[in-house]
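Data deposition worksheet. Section B asks for the primary sequence of the deposited chain exactly as it was used as input, without tags or linkers unless they were present during the calculation. Section C holds the resulting structure in C-alpha cell form. Section D is free text for depositor observations; keep each observation to a single sentence. Incomplete worksheets are returned to the depositor.
Section A, Depositor: J.P.
Section B:
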Amino acid sequence: MTVADEPARVALAAALDAGPSGLDNFVIRGDALVDAELARFDLVDGMALDVAEDVHRFAEGLTGRQFLDYDPSYQTSSSQVLVERLTDIPELAAVDMAIRRGDVPNDAGGLPVVAMAHSLGTGTSRIVAYRLKGPGIATRRSRGITLIPRDGIYRPIDGDVLFYEPRFDVLACGEFAYFTTVTLIQTKLHAPDKARRLAQETLITVTDKILIDGFAELEQAVMDDPTMRAKMAYVARLVQSEPDYAKNLTTESLIAFAELYPDYDIPLSTVDGKTALRFDASPQHRHQIPRLLADDYLHSYLTDRNYEAGSKQRVRA
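Section C:
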C-alpha cells in the first residue's frame, strides 16, 4: 500500500457504490488543455448507454489493480494503476473543475479537439473518464473527404468528424487522477514538476563522486529536456534495484572508460589540473553524460563491435 492508496481507493469505490448514472459528454477544444474551451454534447440513447457502460467498466477495472503513488521512475505492469492528486496536474484540474461546476455551453465546432470526456454521477460520486488527443480521437478534413449516403447520394461532411472509442487515458474521481501510463503526465498533461525534481535529485546523488565540468548547465538541461529526464528516471530505477551499481559511478572509472573507448566520443576536459567529464550542450553531445550514467553501451561478442544502446536487457549467468 502506498501513501495515496487507501484514500484514492476509498474515493473510487464510494463513487461506484453510489451507482453513478446520468451520462454527460464533453469536448475540449484548443491547441492544449491550458487554453482549451470546454463544450458539451449529447448522444442518441442507445450509444449513450454504451458509453456509460464503457466508463463504468473502465472505473471498475481500476479498482482491481494495485494503486501506486505516481513516480516518474516507475515502469508499471498491467496489474497496477498510478494515482496523482489533481492539484498536481493543474491543466487537467482546471478542466475537471469546469466539468463538475456545470453550466457548460453546447458544442458548436470550431477549434481542434484536444480531448474528450465522459462523466457519470453527481457531486463527490462523479467520475470523469478522459481520452486525450491521439490517433483516432478527432479528425479535420485534410487529405480525404468523408462521405455519407443520403437518398442514394453521397454527400461530404463539413467540419469535424469526432470518433468515439471505448478507451480512456485517465479517470478523475474526487481529488484524484488515475492512469496507467507513466509518461502521461509529462507528455499529454504537461505537468513535469515531479519528473524534474526526480531528475535533479538523481543527478546530484549519482554524480556525488564524479568531477563534471559544466555541472550547473548539465543539471538545468536534465531538468528541462524530457529525453534526459527519462534517462535519469532509468538511472534512478537502476540505483534503486541494484545498490552496487552506484559504486561504478566514479570519476576514475568513467574517465577510464571514456579514454579506453574514444569512438563513443565522450567529451573530457581539465578542472584544476584534474581530468573531468565535460558537459557539451551541443545537440550531438548533450546526452552523453546521462547515457554514460545509464551504461548505454554494449559489446557484441559475435561481431566484436561496440554499440550505443538505450534499451537493453541484462543477461545473468
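Section D:
The mean pLDDT is 87.
The CA atoms of residues 81 and 306 lie 38 Å apart.
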